[in-house]
């Protein structure tokens, strides 16, 4: 007999965990089931070692404020990303109060966010960026310096044995965070299980078919034993990382036409040497290489995972045709359809810089990667650092009326017109903005219910429906309240 449920969540990552938690709060009478193909939740992009854990709030990431042709910088995108992360902070704060999430230090820790650049051009740009952000309420406390002594006090590893006469500058925001999204994912799913949600691992959804009554039938295969089965659902969310496109294509919804994805993997340099870890308490971002995707912006990060503090540098791009770290080698080819081959070829033609960047990255050995680290940390030694494989990302390629096809960075929700199915494509800053993304999904897929859910949403997220940056007093109060609950120092 085929089981029928209200909601089927495909994929055991931060997105499904967040949506499942929302729906269990808003509609506790609904039957929710989660299917994850691996042996546990949070093993792909949500795993702590597979992502930067930056808690992306645009405090240090330069790609959210690129200079215009006239050299000016616009803070609007950075402010928007910060607003989205504040929603995540508020939601997690409420879940801590409600006992859904554990002790805050198990998943979030104070870690200043810095940007460090060298060369006259980038120093001039960083100063403009600082001037544009320092008056924005959500960026209150941002600091700027070109003084080696000041920067040394912020992050000593950046300044030791740096060349004299080299122009450099840095910004610092003490209120930054390091987030273990794997821990958040696990804790949310643990709580969902206590609420009666079936979280089934080792179960791979193979395809989706719309039934005559408008519901969806998912065909699955149990990884252990290989037995097949079916489950019917009124609503389906595909949070399967790079495999989301395959399942959305199998559903036949017209909204997925024209979409493709391009996989990019990564590696980190990692050290846990106490004498190095003790000298660096920050996440330090810089400028991306020419042609590099935003997810490959170099950064030297403090990471706290399972109570252990380490330093990561990277990421260095790798290539695999797999859409997931534990995907299949034919993923890239099997996504090709008549409706997306044109946009995908156009993206290839229009992005030679990306191809050149990827080839250059693939030619780097361990020593060359440590050479790249020395741009940040001149005293870096090869033997102190080991290579660690990061996660696999699938960048969105889509049809564009003017260009024919574009490579899109970031994340995008693709939903059927009737709201009965939706999936998430793309990568960074996904995990950090999962709450904002899922709130938008609730509004678009459940328009007849959202007004009834809003009172509870405002309890969970005090600034729901508002812009904190436009309300300085409220922004300060909200930031202070979530910092206190999450035990953050700033």
What would you note in describing this structure?
By secondary structure, this protein is α+β, with helices and mostly antiparallel strands. Strands 4, 5, 6, 12, 13, 14, 15, 16, 17 and 18 form a 10-stranded mixed sheet that branches. Strands 1, 2, 8, 9, 10, 11, 19 and 20 form an 8-stranded mixed sheet that branches. Strand 17 and strand 18 form a beta hairpin.
Which shape, going by the Cα principal axes? globular
| CATH fold title | FAD/NAD(P)-binding domain
Number of contiguous helices: 15
Percent of sequence in beta strands = 25-35%
The level-1 CATH class: Alpha Beta
Mean pLDDT: 93
Alpha-carbon Rg, integer = 22 Å
Q: Enumerate the spans where pLDDT stays under 50 for 5 or more consecutive residues.
A: none
CATH architecture: 3-Layer(bba) Sandwich
Distance between the termini: 54 Å
- Tell me the helix content: 25-40%
Pairing-aware structural class of the strands and helices?
alpha+beta
The number of strands is 20
CATH superfamily: FAD/NAD(P)-binding domain
The largest sheet is: 10 strands, mixed
Count of spatially separate domains = 1
State the gist of this model.
This protein is α+β, with helices and mostly antiparallel strands and 490 residues long. It contains 15 helices and 20 strands.
List keywords for this structure.
single chain; 490 residues; alpha+beta; FAD/NAD(P)-binding domain; ten-stranded mixed sheet; eight-stranded mixed sheet; 15 helices; 20 strands; 32% helix; globular; tricarboxylic acid cycle; EC 1.1.5.4; flavoprotein; FAD; Probable malate:quinone oxidoreductase
């Amino acid at each position: 007999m085929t089981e029928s449920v209200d909601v089927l969540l495909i994929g055991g990552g931060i997105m499904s965990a967040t949506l499942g938690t929302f729906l269990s709060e808003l509609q506790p009478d609904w039957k929710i089931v989660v299917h994850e193909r691996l042996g546990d939740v949070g093993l792909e992009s949500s795993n702590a070692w597979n992502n930067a854990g930056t808690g992306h709030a645009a405090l240090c990431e330069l790609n959210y404020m690129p200079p215009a042709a006239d050299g000016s910088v616009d803070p609007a995108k950075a402010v928007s990303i910060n607003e989205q992360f504040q929603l995540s902070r508020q939601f997690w704060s409420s879940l801590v109060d409600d006992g859904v999430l554990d002790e805050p230090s198990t998943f979030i820790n104070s870690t200043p966010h810095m940007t460090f650049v060298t060369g006259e051009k980038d120093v001039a740009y960083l100063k403009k960026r600082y001037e544009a952000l320092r008056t924005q309420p959500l960026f209150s406390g941002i600091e700027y310096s070109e003084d080696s002594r000041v920067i040394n006090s912020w992050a000593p590893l950046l300044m030791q044995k740096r060349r004299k006469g080299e122009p450099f500058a840095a910004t610092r925001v003490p209120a930054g965070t390091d987030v273990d999204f794997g821990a958040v994912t696990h804790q949310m799913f643990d709580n969902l299980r206590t609420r009666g949600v079936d979280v089934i691992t080792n179960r791979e959804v193979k395809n989706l078919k719309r039934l005559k009554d408008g519901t969806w039938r998912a065909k699955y295969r149990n990884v252990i034993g290989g037995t097949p089965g079916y489950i019917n659902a009124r609503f389906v969310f595909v949070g399967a990382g790079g495999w989301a496109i395959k399942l959305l294509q199998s559903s036949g919804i017209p909204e997925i036409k024209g979409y493709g994805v391009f996989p990019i993997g990564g590696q980190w340099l990692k050290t846990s040497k106490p004498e190095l870890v003790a000298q660096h308490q920050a996440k330090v971002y810089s400028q991306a290489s020419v042609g590099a995707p935003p997810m490959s912006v170099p950064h030297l990060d403090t990471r706290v995972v399972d109570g252990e503090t380490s330093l990561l540098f990277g990421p260095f791009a790798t290539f695999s045709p797999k859409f997931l770290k534990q995907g299949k080698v034919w993923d890239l080819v099997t996504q090709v359809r008549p409706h997306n081959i044109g946009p995908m070829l156009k993206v290839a033609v229009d992005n030679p810089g990306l191809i050149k960047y990827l080839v250059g990255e693939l030619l780097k050995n361990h020593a060359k990667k440590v050479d790249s680290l020395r741009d940040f940390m001149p005293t870096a030694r090869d033997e102190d650092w080991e290579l660690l494989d990061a996660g696999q990302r699938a960048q969105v390629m889509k049809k564009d009326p003017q260009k024919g096809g574009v490579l899109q960075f970031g994340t995008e929700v693709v939903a059927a017109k009737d709201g009965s199915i939706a999936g998430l494509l793309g990568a960074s800053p996904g995990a950090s903005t999962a709450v904002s993304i899922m709130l938008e999904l609730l509004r678009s897929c459940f328009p007849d219910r959202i007004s009834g859910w809003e009172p509870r949403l405002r309890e969970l997220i005090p600034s729901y429906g508002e812009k904190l940056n436009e309300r300085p007093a409220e922004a300060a109060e909200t930031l202070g309240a979530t910092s206190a609950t999450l035990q953050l120092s700033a």
